């Protein structure tokens, strides 16, 4: 019940704060990648909904710089996989109302941009409660190392996220004001 109350509270704050669709500076992200020696070229992004931090401008610039972009496709049993996508490819609306690519070319991203409802200084995230990203991260981490980067607005930071054994910690969180490592 605590997580549900937190979600409702932060979602209202996020909606108020992000009415103008705040963007991240691409150069700031590239400089961060260089500083952290992140050289991977396969990025898993997301299609923003509910006033989530919008990563589409970033993804478009990454695509222009020859990164391979992929978006999630929701599967049965709260699973998801990432599939190749470019900005000229069509999207279809899934049963949750989220645009997703055609499930044609499966991709195992090296870098994962992860949306969230809330986060804390310890790199914990609170999602919508379906566990899609936690399951995906656990599954992909068995196959390869992935860099998990949460994208959020600074107003989504809270003192402590209540966590359980299935919750996956992030490697970094990038906000409009800060980078947490």
Overall description:
With 181 residues, the chain is an alpha/beta fold. The protein contains 4 helices and 12 strands. The strands form 3 sheets. An 8-stranded mixed beta sheet has the order 6-3-2-1-7-10-11-12. It has a two-stranded antiparallel ribbon with strand order 4-5.
Q: Can you describe this structure in just a few lines?
A:
This protein has 4 helices and 12 strands. It has 181 residues and is of the alpha/beta class.
Order of helices and strands: HHEHEEEEEEEEHEEE
Indicate the proportion of strand residues. 15-25%
> What structural class do helix, strand and pairing data support?
alpha/beta
How many strand segments? 12
Task: Tell me the CATH superfamily.
Answer: NagB/RpiA/CoA transferase-like
User: Which CATH class?
Assistant: Alpha Beta
Principal-axes geometry comes out as globular
Strand order of the largest sheet: 6-3-2-1-7-10-11-12
Q: Please, what is the average pLDDT?
A: 93
CATH topology: Rossmann fold
* Individual helix count: 4
Helix content: 10-25%
Question: What is the total domain count?
Answer: 1
CATH architecture group name: 3-Layer(aba) Sandwich
Terminal CA distance reads 29 Å
Uncertain regions: pLDDT < 50 for 5+ in a row? none
Q: Can you summarize the main beta sheet?
A: 8 strands, mixed
Compute the CA-based radius of gyration: 15 Å
